Amino acid sequence: MTKSLIIAQKEIKDFFRDTGDLAFALLLPILIFALMYGVFSASTQFNGTAYIVNEDDGGKYATELINNLENSEGITVKLLTAGDAAAKLDRSAIYLAMVIPSGFSDTLAGGKPAQLTFRQRGNGSTEGQIIASIVRGIADNISRNVKVMQNVKADLADWAIPAPQIELVVQDYLNQEKVSPLVAVTETAVGSSPDPVNLYLPGIITMFVLFGVNLTAQSLVDERRKGTLERLIASRLKISELFFGKFLAYVTRGFFQTFILLALSYAVFQMFTPLTFLEASLVALIFATTCATIGIFLGAVCRTTNQAIWIAVFVTMAIVMVSGTFFPIAEGSSLYTVSRFSVNTYANDAFRTIMTQGSSLADIGKEMIILLSVTVVGLIISRFIFRAVRGGK
Amino acid sequence: MAEPFLVAKDLQKYFRDLKAVDGVSFTIEKGEIFGLLGPNGAGKTTTIRILSTVIEPDGGEFTIGGFSTKNNTAQVRSLIGICPQELALYADLTAFDNLVFFGRMANLSSAEARQQAIANLALMGLAERAKKGRVEKFSGGMKRRVNLAIALMGHPQLLFLDEPTVGIDPQSRNNIYETIENLRDNGMTILYTTHYMEEADRLCKRVAIMDGGKIIAMDTPYALKSRIGDPEHTSLEEVFLKLTGRSLRD
Lengths: 393, 250
Prior knowledge:
The complex is a heterodimer of chains A (393) and B (250).
Chain A: H1 2-17, H2 19-41, E1 48-54, H3 60-71, E2 75-79, H4 82-90, E3 96-100, H5 104-109, E4 117-120, H6 125-155, H7 163-179, H8 196-226, H9 228-234, H10 239-269, H11 274-301, H12 305-322, H13 334-339, H14 343-357, H15 365-385
Parallel strand pairs in A: 1-2, 1-3
Antiparallel strand pairs in A: 3-4
Helix pairs in contact in A: 1-10, 2-8, 2-10, 3-6, 6-7, 8-10, 8-11, 8-12, 8-14, 10-11, 11-14, 11-15, 14-15
Chain B: E1 4-15, E2 18-29, E3 33-37, H1 44-51, E4 59-64, E5 67-68, H2 69-79, E6 80-83, H3 95-105, H4 110-123, H5 140-151, E7 158-162, H6 170-185, E8 189-193, H7 197-203, E9 206-211, E10 214-219, H8 221-228, H9 236-244
Parallel strand pairs in B: 3-8, 3-9, 6-7, 7-8
Antiparallel strand pairs in B: 1-2, 1-4, 4-5, 9-10
Helix pairs in contact in B: 3-4, 4-5, 5-6, 8-9
């Protein structure tokens, strides 16, 4: 135990001794936090571009549709030729284009169903889906108005009222309905607005801790590569003592950086009560132990520094990607099943439970047990597969 | 006859199909400098790794100071110091901090480690640079001397020196020679590997020449030279080349 503490002390001293490293380690959480603050403080209103191929150029209803789209908040309209649209879709420069076919207005004016076509790559992207939905709303309105106008004209056909007069009156009613609809939709804010900080901060914190996987793995591989490990073993150091020393050092380092992020979140966003701050810090500490263990495992498996770096990067990315760090995963989906194998899932869940629900540690017991179990089992497996030198113990 | 301090019997180590060490047996007397010579890939470093308890032999056995690794590895480790071929030290620490750290790993108390670090660095002519600057700023010769000074932490009785003078200036090399002779005069047993034959001739009481994992000759340098000619006018290098051949080794 004493030797492990000496190793941990040496590693931590190294960390604090190198002012460049230290500044970087301190600045990075602050920079990420500043970035996060900038991004999350910005307006969250939807902004998108509607790419339209208008083959009904000059048509009454095509023009109305485009004008209404242009007047929709946050939407910019860009007109493309069919060839441009196809080329852009082909190289994924855009994901969705709406085609207004030739004769669209005449078909609609003739009381027949007209067709709008969406050409899209895959699902058209989130932005494309939102724009398509807005287009559908506008097209429904136009369709309804045309239908009403035609029905009224048909009903009054025997009354010898001039058509322009009918159109004027009906249009006036339609405009009144538009200004004061019978079904009014109002938005009432309940509590504070959905807070993107609450949503994304857990992911940012867990990602930050995960970066330590790379450093831990490299540190262990470097000991072997430099020959210091061989020397340490011959000088009566047990591998388990080395592991525990490295483990303590990188848990401390990971926790230290995470703590800065949590403290800034507390101070700037007032996200915590004193109690939930302590609870979140404990989650950070436990997750730091899990990440240090993953790093030690990779250090035990990898033979070269490059191997350690690349495998650690891959593992970190995989863990983040499948855990729904920055997007929700639907329960029951296959990705949901996969996400259960990522430690990040449990850390994210634990942080979110504390940050958004203000829940206590009792509510995240399962997550904490899983993370601690991975730590213990991971350390044991690493010890069994670790070899100080080729052919060694 | 002096008592044997290290006794190796029929040591064997395989790496898949490669016999890295193939039936190596020798003894080293207490206070003797024993040279282990051989071309690259002869099995010298693997033999040292076995004897320094870093890897286990696939066959054979050895004792150091009467203790066997089969039942008393900790006791064996308390008797040995190792100076590997690589500069096995922490370049971002000072020389003093390196020695103190390895001293603590060798079960020394903090005070003992500091005391020995100062003494060993003085012995290697590094007292003035002990706490000044990280080792990464040192010259190659100074790093080699730190590497040796670390091996002396914990007052080992048997020292494994694996090519301790590779790539250094004549002054540093001379300092290392003097230190080794001084250690021998104070009763330390040393197993020494080198590619410099004049070094082995100067320092070693006996040498063993290894090739292909086996010891192909073992005697005093004088006796080995006598085998191929007039020992006064024959170099150990000539003996070495005669025994191991002139073909290049990887």
